[in-house]
Amino acid sequence: MAARIVISEFMDAPAVAALRGRFEVDYRPKLVDDPSALEAALQFADAWIVRNRSQVRGRALDAAVNVRVIGRLGVGLDNIDLAACEARGIEVIPATGANAESVAEYVITAALMLLRGAYSSTRAVEAGTWPRQMLSQGREAAGKVLGIVGLGSIGRLTARKARAMGMKVIAHDPFLPARTEAWTEVGEGARDLDALLRESDVVSLHIPLTAETRGLLDSARLAAMKRDAVLINTARGGIIDEAALAAMLREGRLGGAALDVFDKEPLAAGSPLVGAPRLLLTPHIAGVTLESNERVSALIAQRVAAALSR
Q1: Which of 51, 156, 236, 295 is catalytic?
Q2: I need a surface site. Which of 8, 74, 101, 201 has the fewest CB within 10 A?
């Protein structure tokens, strides 16, 4: 009897078709929103493929009595109870590196938009107000310092792209050995976190959400940044104190921010971020493009299939 795979969120169609050619596949992209149906489906599953919304823990994981492989369509693992999976011998497979290009391009795009500050003028120009003087105060990226927090595959690729544009790159990653090859991507060297925040014109976060990183950029650390600095978070919500960030933007104590991830998703109507100036908000899509969806889905399909065939 073929192994059974439950896919509880969106997956690229060719990858799903490839899995169906070898396994019994229950693919329902909205299954994540129906906990009872999900638990019922998982009772008969050998593998479970998820994105970031499916919570691989608690009752759902308890229901998955025969699951031996979890495929993650992405790289963040904070929605997965890794300790429980390890205790049960469940293999967790992230799509490491498959969406790095998309995230790195997002970071560079957000940095350019926020530094230049001129890309929300369409309605004003159409109305004939011609805000040329106001929008002539933008800054170039060349020569600016990009501080990367977390020098994994995405952080390294972002560093390469930034250096190609003439930016200076510094980084903070206390878990990366000093002599590892990854540091060759950083032209200006390693910094401790506080020094990085003081020196950077643009700060980009590329770290997981853990007990140690939750609230890492609190009001004190945000206040240590340059008044015109730009902050970009494509990593995980919860790393930044959102209320403190909103207050700094409203008080003109920060040049701007781009957030693709939030402490609670979707963003609540009463969030302090709502209405804050110089703020770009996107719905957790930095790593999601047509191309990255294909790469991520194909990679996870291949690796889950290989794990089930062992």
Answers
A1: 236
A2: 101
